[in-house]
């Protein structure tokens, strides 16, 4: 572990701040792709954000385990919460739906700039860059804002009726990055699944890869980079899914991050192929978090 990279120091580097007290707007029933699941939508309102989210709630009596399923990036700003919910986009990224089918209550938020959090004009990459640059001059980062929003959703789920145990977090790509950082800065979180979301700054530079702007956190490389984040995760349990031919998160860098997890923390599964989720990914997420 890189000396000094504590949860508090990492939270300060990414500028996560404190999640605000959250309340949900009026719930609206949505058409569920599974008749055994109720699907609802609302907006989670905090002092700093208004976070549209979907919620799968099993129709069977609780208590239920709970999870936050965080969507990927994939340069598809019109997609957010609806993709892990299995409503739109890549069915191989429907890990929120897979978790709900395993009996979880699952919250799926839009990160800022995606789906219902796109601005009316200047949507897409320009808005993402606008938010990222302004987060920097305000002393934070875009990833810090994403983490704060996810932790606000965690806060809300913890207070939800019939939720049992610590809330888990899971995500692919951008969702995996935010799941990793959320797990690292919040002691309440104990379990996560990170799919194709880790590599090193050095490996990305060598491969000429330009990542989403939130991934670049000032001061993190001097503190040991994402390998130091991995090394700080003592007392946690996570599944790491990685692709040997990942064109966004080079395998050599991913291996360095994975090697930095303390003993007993990470279960690692490598697969051949590229970055995009495969048909086995949703079930891998759900089975692991369900303890199967």
From TrEMBL:
GO molecular function, one term: hydrolase activity
Keyword Hydrolase on entry: yes
InterPro entries found in the cross-reference section: AB_hydrolase_fold, Dienelactn_hydro
Keywords: Hydrolase
Native organism: Demequina lutea
Keyword ATP-binding: no
Protein name (record): Dienelactone hydrolase
Annotated Dienelactone hydrolase domain residues: 85-222
Coiled coil ranges: none
